[in-house]
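(Deposited chain)
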Amino acid sequence: MNNITPNSSSIPPQIPSPGVPVPALAPLGENPQEREPLPNVVATIESMLRQPRRVMYQLRQPGSGRVVLGMLVASICCSLIYGVVVGTFSMGEQLWAAPVKIAGGLLFAAVLCLPSLYIFTCLSGSHARLNEICGLLAGLLLLMTVLLIGFAPVAWLFSQSTESVVWMGILHLAFWLVSTLFGLRFLETGFSHTQSRSSAGLNVWIILFLLVAVQMTTALRPIVGKASSFFPTEKKFFVTHWKECWETPAAGGHN
């Protein structure tokens, strides 16, 4: 009578102990699959999409320079391809000018922001070396440009079915923003494995990178529309340029 067997359905669910590590924050390389080397660029891209921790682990290993170089080359190629799609809106010289501006501007923005990223990383107490920081930044660019390739068919469809430079600029900007957010998520995840004490510096850098990137689109205009010169003849802040394009659609040819 006193031996009462409790109903299994009445047993409350077990709450994991606070000491159990979260799988997303487990040490890099704990999974044997993460320790597998990246033989080529295709494997690196697949890992960026499916197993980003594998890429993060390889960036800490000797000879990671080959992986970093491969990611940079792949990101340049992807941005050139997307640039051709952007150029199909205006055709003509934009078929080569837009790819050059997009690939060159993206790479130049990364180079400009690399010193501040390394300084903020050091100030946060991170133990990451310069080559690892370069690798994380290259991973950001690669993931961004691969996602842009995914958006390329949609961008091409709209470029062939509308004549509004302003709305095409907004569409490309939206695709760029979504791709950048995913790339920054990779960077933040890699940063969390560098034993940093605070992410405040990284958050400041993210704002800086976004500002530099959008200003680059204005400094290298036109990218979507047409103009009489390869580079703009006057300096403008990107907010001013966007406002002028929005208020005067006819000026959209310089977007």
DSSP finds eight helices and no strands in the chain. Helices lie at 41-50, 52-58, 64-87, 94-123, 130-159, 165-192, 200-219, 238-247. Residues 85 and 157 are 10 Å apart (CA to CA). Residues 40-254 form one domain.
